[in-house]
Design a protein that fits this description.
The structure is a single chain. This protein is 47% helix and 26% strand. By secondary structure, it is an alpha+beta fold. A four-stranded mixed sheet has the order 2-1-3-4. Helix 1 packs across helix 5. The protein starts with a strand and ends with a helix.
Amino acid sequence: RVEVMFFHNHERCSSCLNMEKLTKEVVDTYFTQQVKDGKLVLLIIDIEDKNNTEVTDDYQVIWTSLYLNKWQNGTESRHNMTEFAFLNVDSSPDEFKEGIRKQIEELL
């Protein structure tokens, strides 16, 4: 299975809001069947919510972050897409969406 994990704070800038919006758009547009089949899951995680402390500590996130992860045979392979996301989300939203889509396809 593949996990798309978007971490955010309570207060968000326009880039952070766009990142969540465009990530959801990619998942909803290209991977509806994989979500239904349980092969892909989108997780939106508020890092300031105390219920998420374990996962935020594990990923060591302290601000907006985007990870694409593959789970296979009980082993997780993490792909930190945060730098790519911030470089493209506002200046090249189509490139952002295409890069996220391609990475998810590779992981599936």
